[in-house]
Amino acid sequence: MEEFETLLDEYFTLESPKVGNVVKGKILAIESGQVIIDVGSKVEGRIDYKEFTGPGNLEEVNVGDEVDVYYESVENGSGLAVISRERARREEAWERLLKAHENNEKVEGSIVNRVKGGFTVDLGGVIAFLPGSQVNIRPMRDIETLMGTLETFAILKMDRDKNNIVVSRRAILEESRAELRAEIVNKLTEGEIIEGTVKNITDYGAFVDLGGVDGLLHITDMSWGRIKHPSEVVSINKTVKVRVVNINQESQRISLGIKQLREDPWLTVDENYPVQTKHKGHVTNITDYGAFVELEPGIEGLIHISEMSWNKKNSTPSRLVSTSQEVEVMVLDIDKEKRRISLGLKQTMPNPWQEFAEKYPRGTRLEGEIKNITEFGLFVGLDYDIDGMIHLSDLSWDKPGSELVSEYNPGDVVEVVVSEIDVDKERVALSIKDLETDPFLEATSGLFKGKTVTVNVTEILDNAIEVELRGITTIIKRSDLGKDMDNQLPSKFKVGQEVEAQITHVDSSSRKLGLSIRLLEMKEAKEAVEKYSSNDTGGLLGDILGEALESKNE
To answer: Do 513 and 444 form a contact (C-beta atoms < 8 A)?
Structure first.
């Protein structure tokens, strides 16, 4: 009787399970694919055996084991309590995940399925979403290797009401990578030489794996010379030796260089390539204004179009050289500060202007074909494929070149005289008039300043007279027609009249002859004074001058 009362007291003192909570239950039996569980207060429920399936494995359950279940309702139509192992596990997982999220802790789970935009992840009873961009640091070609395997994730966000969890595997990898990067970066020193493996190549450079951390090998640090693309120097998976050029501790970025493994060739460029020395190189690039030639890796110079050929008529760079062609050049100038070298191609070839000057010195007569006619002269083709110019003023001694030029046509062969050669400026001046002696020189032979000559009046002008002497026509100005104002009237002279005058100048360069009647009269008057002013003569000065002038007029 006492035992019965004790059992009865225990029965009434047992706490009844609360609906909507996770409660502990005891497995009473396992039959027909179902697990029978006592959740307390003699309340039993049944759970399908499949609910005990965990991530990737079957949960081990035996009669007598205690398990957590979710108490959904008091009883169903069969008089049994409605309980769920799966939901209990989910509730436990949510609590665990919420706590992990609050503490910024990592969680484990398995990628179980592919969905739109990403994957689903089983976090031990709760399904989370893993966006495709959060699977790895770089896009993965084969995601299947991760399916079903236990991975570590970071929770990006959670919404309990919507049963929504977003996780990231990439965040974990980046964190690990950052830790590894910091460790490696701290061990590296600028200037250090290390080896790495090329993992990726872009248009601007290559990324080199230094053992868990990548460094950038920029295209400008690959070679002292010109390269168009990084693939000319490195290739994927190739092991390369590099120098650590720079370490940014703040961003933890590592800059690498291959060209820094050797000395900058520009430091000794003036020693290795003195000005006026000849060297061989290869054409690397051709432009409209010239061609670039590499003398050695890192040392590249420009042959300007004006230094490519002595013949300016055929100086198109692409017609003179081709890419990769080996050429001999001369160093013309070096600017170490701007890292520029001026090269010459034509300087390594015979200078046609020098050869022409040696074969046809000044004064040589030769023939040439008129190539072109311009407003200032004729261009004549000569030997060595060069052109000489005949200025209009060199067509004739006494006729205007502007009138004579119409008598010539392109294609005409003319005889010329070499009047001037400038090898440095690449110019040859020619003359047709020098084929004959200058008539002015012939006409003025024996004439000099102060000499008295007889000229013939050819025309009366308003303020001068035109006269002719030995075929030379010149003008005597009114002020030079007489010593006195009364005798300076041009009208006192007649065409055909012969008069005497004194030469004031003979200028062969300007081809001008100056004459003056006034100076002659003054000269004769002075001579008369000297002649008739002796002590033996009692004549007056006026009489003497009068006689002199009278004899002059006669």
So the answer is: yes
Cα separation, 159 vs 42, in Å, equals 37
Task: Give the pLDDT confidence of 452-469 residue by residue, as tens digits.
Answer: 999 999 999 999 999 999
What is the C-alpha to C-alpha distance for residues 266 and 268, in angstroms, rounded to an integer? 5
58: which DSSP letter? Answer: B
State the Cα–Cα distance between residues 443 and 547, nearest whole angstrom: 35
Long-range contacts of 85-92 (CB under 8 A, 24+ apart): 85/35, 85/47, 85/51, 85/52, 86/51, 86/125, 88/22, 89/124, 89/125, 90/125, 90/126, 91/22, 92/22, 92/68, 92/125
Compute the distance between CA of residue 402 and CA of residue 498 in angstroms, rounded to an integer.
34
Contact 415, 444 (CB under 8 A): no
Tokens standing for 165?
A: 């969890």
**Domains recognised in the chain with CATH numbers:** 2-88 (2.40.50.140), 106-173 (2.40.50.140), 188-261 (2.40.50.140), 265-348 (2.40.50.140), 352-435 (2.40.50.140), 439-532 (2.40.50.140)
Structural contact between residues 318 and 305, judged by C-beta atoms closer than 8 angstroms: no
For residue range 132-143, list pLDDT tens digits in order: 888 888 777 778
Are 430 and 375 in contact, with CB atoms under 8 Å apart? Answer: no
Residues 6 or more apart whose Cβ sits within 8 Å of residue 473: 458, 466, 467
pTM: 0.51
Residue 145, Ramachandran bin (φ over 0: left; ψ between -120 and 50: alpha; else beta)? alpha
Mean pLDDT by 10 residues, the chain (554 residues): 51 54 80 79 77 60 78 68 76 84 89 90 87 85 83 89 89 83 84 93 93 90 88 93 90 90 91 96 94 93 93 81 95 94 94 93 94 93 92 89 91 94 93 88 86 92 91 90 87 92 88 90 86 58 53 49
